[in-house]
């Protein structure tokens, strides 16, 4: 079984560099510098979430600098439009959000819809998701990804929630297209302090651990 999903180039690029840094911070002093720090550590994809105050301005600044920057925790059409207008490369939702998918399709921007159950996965597919984010991944573990690939073989899945350097490689081995790195790589206090060297160090350590476990 194959799935005719939009944005194959997005999935190919994500598979080549399968770690997304998900940033939830009370403030971001310099979004382009944050993205650069992550890229220097080997993480090319950054997701800034709508749980951060004033994230629209940060999305605009980061996207203008040419980074692979996405908007996460997108819950409404208004948030989706703001992010698209900011120039983001992709949108991510925590659950199945038809209105967000509609805005994404109109703009030609990849959307990764969140799901957990097989029924929610099917709903996300019906809405034309570019990939399906399984959240919270920690609650069910890597084996759940192998289970989902039974009824949904070849489906591009992204593991989010509770993924760390110790288990990321196992999620990938069990069928995840990519994994999301959270506070282990981008602790809110480190981001807010603008400690970019520490962010690079953490990103490098995460990527190295994943690559080592994958061999």
From TrEMBL:
Pathway: Carbohydrate acid metabolism. Pfam families: Aldolase. Keywords: Carbohydrate metabolism, Lyase. Gene3D superfamilies: Aldolase class I. It comes from the Bacteria. Coiled coil: none annotated. Homotrimer. Belongs to the KHG/KDPG aldolase family. This is Bifunctional 4-hydroxy-2-oxoglutarate aldolase/2-dehydro-3-deoxy-phosphogluconate aldolase. It comes from Catenulispora yoronensis. The lineage of its organism: Bacteria, Bacillati, Actinomycetota, Actinomycetes, Catenulisporales.
């Amino acid at each position: 079984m194959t799935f005719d999903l939009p944005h194959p180039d997005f999935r190919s690029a994500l598979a080549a560099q399968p770690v997304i840094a998900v940033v939830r911070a009370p403030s971001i002093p310099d979004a382009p510098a944050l993205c650069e720090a992550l890229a220097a550590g080997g993480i090319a994809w950054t997701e800034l979430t709508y749980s951060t105050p004033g994230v629209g301005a940060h999305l605009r600044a980061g996207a203008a600098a040419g980074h692979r920057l996405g908007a996460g925790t997108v819950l409404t059409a208004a948030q989706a439009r703001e992010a698209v207008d900011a120039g983001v490369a992709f949108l991510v939702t925590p659950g199945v959000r038809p209105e967000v998918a509609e805005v994404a399709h109109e703009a030609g921007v990849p959307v990764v819809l969140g799901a957990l159950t097989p029924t929610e996965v099917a709903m996300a597919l019906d809405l034309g998701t570019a990939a399906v984010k399984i959240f919270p991944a920690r609650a069910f573990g890597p084996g759940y990804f192998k289970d989902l690939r039974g009824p949904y073989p070849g489906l591009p899945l992204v593991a989010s929630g509770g993924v760390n350097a110790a288990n990321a490689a196992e999620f990938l081995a069990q069928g995840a297209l990519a994994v999301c790195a959270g506070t282990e790589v981008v602790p809110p206090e480190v981001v807010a302090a603008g400690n970019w060297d520490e962010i690079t160090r953490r990103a490098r350590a995460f990527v190295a651990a994943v690559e080592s476990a994958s061999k």
